[in-house]
Amino acid sequence: MSSGLKRDRRILAGLATAIGMIPFLINNPYYLTVLNLSALNILTVCGLTLLIGYAGQISLGHAGFWALGAYGSALLSLKTGLNPWLTTALALGFTLAVSAGMGFTVLRLKGNYLVMATLAFNLAVYFFLVEAEELTGGPPGLPGIPPYTLGSLAFVTDLAAYYLIWPVVLITLFLTFNLVHSGEGRALRALASGEIAAACLGINPRRYKVLAFVLSAAYASLAGSLYAHYFSFISPKTFDIFFSVELVAMCLFGGKGSLWGAVLGAGLLTPLPHFLSIFDEYRDLIYGGLLMGVLIFFPDGLSGLMRKLYGRKAP
Amino acid sequence: MSESSLFLQFLFSGLTAGAIYALVALGFCVVENSLRIVNFAQGDFLTLGGFFMTTFLLSLKIPWPLAALCSILAVGLCGYLLERIALRSAKTHDPLTLIFITIGASIFIRGLIKLFWGKNPRIFPPLITGEPIRLLGASLTRESLLILAVGFFCVTILHLFYRVSRSGKALRAVAYSPRAAALIGLPVGFLNSVSFFLAGALGAVAGLLIVPVTGVSFDTGVILGLKGYAASVLGGYGSFPGAIAGGLLLGVMEALVAGFISSGFRDVFAFALLFCVLAIKPSGLFGTHEEERV
Amino acid sequence: MAEKRPKILKVENLSKNFGGVQALRGVSLNLRAGEILGLIGPNGAGKTTLINIVSGVVREDAGTIFFEEHLLNELSPWQRAALGLARTFQHIQIFAGLTVLENVMCGAHRLRKTGFWETFLRLPRAVAEEDECRRQALSILSELGLADKANLPAENLPYGEQKKVVIARALASRPRAILLDEPAGGLNEKETEELGEIILRLREKGLAILLVEHDLNLVMRICERVVVLNQGEVIAEGPPCEIQNDPRVLEAYLGK
Ligand SMILES: Nc1ncnc2c1ncn2[C@@H]1O[C@H](COP(=O)(O)OP(=O)(O)OP(=O)(O)O)[C@@H](O)[C@H]1O
Ligand SMILES: [Mg+2]
């Protein structure tokens, strides 16, 4: 086993232990809500790191995939009465199909054109959710989404949701670490570093770009479904392009070169606006200033900074 | 109104909105033609222009031509500062990171605007007044005419600047290869600042024109910035004629969809169409495809 | 005798025009198994263009390319590489951000048999394959004297060693033919000497090598056959001793 994977698994084990104990120390439900949101963002940003940091592609449309997961699963469970676990899987399948289709058409684009196409996808989904009121409930949103259940246990409280969402996220992280420490992860990074050189080693650029895209869309969709059944209410506002932008900001802030960047970026930037709400006046100033500052002085993000401080090589 | 004059009416309103998109798109192009990045603060330049104008015109009571000039210079200065202070200090050349620095700047500028001008929308009276002009049963306001005229004026000036003047040629050289430009002694940093100044000034011009029509609030620039970005991508990113064509096309398309199909689905159509254009022609309508050399 | 060896790479009548610049005009050449074929010519002669077309990075205007029994024309670069046709680049193209070892392991991509799910779930087959890949890469690195650099970031190595790393990377795919674009460019005398030894050793293993090089000493020393390209045309072909004295070659290099 490579030393990188060993190290990452050790840190992950430490993180899992800490996560498991937090509810015994904090029982303020508001904090648990924020932690749950952080977990969902970590899941999504983890996928984005694969796409942006590893495969070298850009997407400003991942809130659109959240929306597919959230609305897809919520609508199915509301309209057909199917079990939320099943509808989550169905929504995931739907997202896989959509993102694969998109992957094959859109990933031919480069730079600005790719940014715009993914933005356009997000905007089209958003405006559709707003306008197709009969189906989606329109701007006021969709209430009464059933929660996940396990036997007689329903995951409705923040605490129960905490012990559902975090394990899902940690397991996904575990699997994603497997991936990045394998030939597949290497091929992705080679592709980001030099597409032509990678192709001349037999790495199929199209396959790997689409793989990273589909995988990141799947993570986003899963996060969206978990979100919908946890809060039991969703509205289009949650899935606008600002959320997409925020997700990529988390990815860069944490450092796109490593999956730990996703954990750091989403783990720190998700709670930030909630804490900044005490001084509402200065919220945008602080958020914008912090984002600029970190990216200007530490372009490799926080994980890049830590790597420099500890002189370690990232995965 | 008859079907054809209705069409003409939608066309006029589409062209007017399109000219604003085109002006914003030009701001994106100017930056693309030196730094080769997307400046997502472009929309906020527009907002800033509008707010400076309300202050100069209504609070300080400066006559409008002078107030307009001051606003343009002030926003130009903001653009300059953004490049000089933020982007030039960045320790990376990774375009995505640079783009997100401009996104940070955009959020920061919105924070500043909220702090100085508050969250309430403002408006100032039209710069020119007069009866709308009637044409084949449709009417065209003087303001729309002004917007169209200024739009075409700006693109002509920019076109001449880039094709004819020495500094314009130098800017293009920087865009083509910053390293080569530095080697032959061009002041690359200064030229980049100039292009950001221009981008700010263009944003301000768009702001001056749109505020009397729609008013301005701290987030006005967000959606207009996006539309401008969409317009420049549609036309072929970085091309000046492409920006104008993309802007007008987007404006007209939106107006026609809103008028004849459904105003609600206007944006769905606009962005779905953009998506399709990109899927078919990956470098926009007027963009040229560049091949990588190895 | 040499001519009995099978032709492994056949290029026929290759032409390429870059917006007015005729980079190649009807170039034909053959590479036989286990031979080192030198391809020389002044700057801009079209050598890199030829390699780019053979590896699929640039599309030809006319002509055919056969690799073993496969017609390459319609294949993408990665498909050609997957058949066992490797190349290096004039401008190195090392993977920055990956270690030396990881760079070389990337080369073994075409030999991988496990797919997404096996690596995602880290099933035993994937683990075994990964270990084997690492062992192979390390052994190639130690053959080239780079074993102690294996875990350094590749982009931090000196130029000469980076050039070796990309050769190691190409070799990791266990190719049957390899196209080297100016491997000695930028190397000092001692490094060039070493490189010559490495290339000769590769031939011992039966690899077919196309060597594009400006260092004529090296070419004359290790190649069995040399093709001279000038302004997109083959102007001479033969063993090094004949080429050296060919007036057309002298003219191309020195001008009239
Ligand atoms: N992608 C390209 N676009 C336009 N022209 C090109 C391109 N690639 C090569 N050329 C031109 O084709 C001609 C042959 O170039 P090539 O790089 O093949 O020469 P070379 O023999 O490798 O030269 P050198 O020894 O300098 O590497 C040159 O005139 C070059 O400018
Ligand atoms: Mg060459």
Question: What would you note in describing this structure?
Answer:
- The complex is a heterotrimer of chains A (315), B (294) and C (256).
- Chain A has 315 residues and is mostly helical.
- Chain A has helices at 3-25, 29-54, 62-80, 84-106, 111-131, 133-136, 158-180, 183-193, 195-199, 205-231, 241-254, 259-269, 271-276, 283-297, 301-310, and strands spanning 149-150, 153-154.
- Chain A has one domain.
- Chain A contains 15 helices and 2 strands.
- In chain A, helix 2 runs parallel beside helix 7 and helix 3 (62-80) packs antiparallel against helix 4.
- Chain A is globular and about 50 Å long.
- The mean pLDDT of chain A is 92.
- Chain B has a single domain (8-292), classed as Orthogonal Bundle (ABC transporter involved in vitamin B12 uptake, BtuC), CATH 1.10.3470.
- Chain B contains 11 helices and 2 strands, in the order H-H-H-H-E-E-H-H-H-H-H-H-H.
- In chain B, a hairpin with a 2-residue loop joins strand 1 and strand 2.
- Chain C is of the alpha/beta class and 256 residues long.
- Chain C folds into 2 domains: 1-84 and 175-256, 3-Layer(aba) Sandwich (Rossmann fold); 95-170, no CATH class.
- Chain C is built from 10 helices and 10 strands.
- Chain C is globular and about 60 Å long.
- Chain C starts with 6 loop residues before the first strand and ends with a helix.
- The model of chain C has no long low-confidence stretch (mean pLDDT 93).
- Classes of the chains: A mainly alpha (315), B mainly alpha (294), C alpha/beta (256).
- Chains A and B meet through helix 5, helix 11 and helix 14 of A and helix 4, helix 9 and helix 11 of B.
- The complex binds adenosine-5'-triphosphate (ATP) and magnesium ion.
- Chain A: This is Branched-chain amino acid transport system permease protein LivM.
Quick structural overview:
The complex is a heterotrimer of chains A (315), B (294) and C (256). Chain A is an all-alpha fold and 315 residues long.
